[in-house]
Predict the structure.
Amino acid sequence: MQWILNQKREEHAREISRRKAAEEVAYQQLCKTQPEYFSEQDEICKEYMKAFQECHVEAELIYVSLCLFLVKKVPSHGLELSRLETGDATVEEATDKVDQAVKLNEERSKKWSGWFKDVASWKRNDSEEELAIFDSILSQRPDIAEAMADEENERFRLEEDIHSFEEKMRQVYPNPEFYQGRMNSLEEAFQRQLDDYHRTVTVMT
């Protein structure tokens, strides 16, 4: 009888020892996996930031090209554009050139509108004769006639051109979903490892 009891105690001790060994293996595996998980997570973040920064340089060049395009839309602007044309200008420089061109264009528009209204006020009526005289006067300022005639269509075309440049800038940036997908896969793998450890511990208890 005592022999049987001793045998059972030994079997129980071996089982406890086996369980502890299995738990220790699972724990060591988890300890190994956790720093690897954080290391890989950090590496993915670094890869994304590197790709983003490299693409950001290209996006800035496209932005400078957009600024150059906009400034050239203003006739006789008199601005120095050599750095924009060579792609050496910073975003701040390019933006400043656009601001100057916009300011010049707004000042001109106010003057043109005032001149246009003054001339229009001279018309005594809307007869064909008066309209012909008005058109004759307007023809003396082709710059104003051109600016006022197709203003709405020009604004629409300009918006389309700006949208095209903006789309090019968006396309050069890395796709965040690609990197997020890698992060999700990494997290799922770590979670499976964590679940395996918890299952092992649960079985041991």
The chain is about 85% helix and 0% strand. The mean pLDDT is 77.
